[in-house]
Specification:
Thrombin, subunit H, 6 helices, 2 domains, 282 residues, signal, binds 4-(aminomethyl)benzoic acid, six-stranded antiparallel barrel
């Protein structure tokens, strides 16, 4: 029962409303003030590299059309999840979504007008992305104009200690805060831990939901459940020691004991793209 933001948003409302109930039955108690699940509010200025992906045409204007997250790694380069740009999410190829934008420097999507809204000039979806296993879930967006200020985060390359199991990491996003389709207006963050690959290998050995692959994915959350990313956070950053280690990708439910969050491993993306520097285009 893999559930993803964008898919949930295009589901008929009644079905979308019924789905969380299926997973909630097994859930660990979820804090009422969750992010991302179990999180806390943050200002965009505290994580200026966290951006919202938006299409008001496709997702409605209430929360500025937000449907996924992204991480800025260069002044005109944003990373996101490949599954955010699926045809079944966008209703067609990404080039057809005329108002596809990145929103940066804005905390509250409902009422703030600040920050930047920048058109996406080019989308590059990892051709090796496999929607069955979820491997290679990344895409690169090239912006029509540069981001202001110092809003770029460095990427953690292979061998970086930030990937060590037990490290504290922070995930950022505007995603579901309860697992019941409750989307916050403001940006939130949750502190999680990098978990041993074995936990995700046991949780996701293969099948309908996806298959955990330690070389290209990263396991994070809390072994006992609680804090986690959720629908709507996809594509957004997971940061440890000040460096980008993951992009929100998939999992079963949100914040459930025994079902940690699965992230696209940033060192895998760097290797795939031949990127050796911590940031792109700087
Ligand atoms: C999603 O649907 C999604 N709990 C993102 C993260 C997780 C589950 C689902 C991890 O976008």
């Amino acid at each position: 029962m893999r559930r993803r933001l964008a898919r949930a948003l295009v589901l008929p409302l009644a079905l979308a409303a019924a789905m969380p109930a299926l997973s909630m039955g097994f859930s660990a108690p979820v804090a009422a003030d969750s992010v991302v699940i179990g999180g806390f509010p943050v200002e965009a200025s505290q994580s200026p590299w966290t951006v919202a992906l938006s299409s008001r045409d496709r997702f409605g204007g209430t929360r500025a059309g937000q449907f996924c997250g992204g991480a800025a790694v260069g002044p005109t380069t944003v990373l996101t999840a490949a599954h955010c740009l699926d045809e079944d999410v966008l209703g067609g190829p990404p080039e057809r979504v005329r108002d596809l934008k990145v929103i940066a420097g804005r905390t509250d999507l409902l009422s703030d007008r600040g920050g930047q809204e920048i058109a996406v000039r080019r989308t590059w979806v990892n051709p090796a992305y496999d929607g069955g296993s979820n491997a290679g879930d990344f895409a690169v967006l090239t912006l029509a104009e540069p981001l202001q200020g110092d809003s770029v985060i460095g990427m953690a390359a292979d061998g970086d200690p930030a990937y060590t199991a037990g490290e504290t990491a922070t995930v950022y996003g505007w995603g579901d805060i309860s697992g019941t389709g409750e989307y916050p207006d403001g940006l939130r963050a949750a502190r999680v831990r990098v978990l041993p690959d074995a936990l995700c290998e046991d949780a996701y050995p293969g099948g309908m939901d996806g298959t955990y692959d330690a070389a290209s994915m990263l396991c994070a959350g809390e072994a006992e459940g609680g804090r986690d990313a959720c629908q709507g956070d996809s594509g957004g950053p997971l940061v440890a020691q000040g460096r980008l280690i993951g992009l929100v990708s998939w999992g079963i439910g949100c914040g459930r004991a025994g079902n940690p969050g699965v992230y696209m491993r940033v060192s895998h993306l760097m290797r795939t793209l031949g990127w050796t520097r911590a940031s792109e285009g700087v």
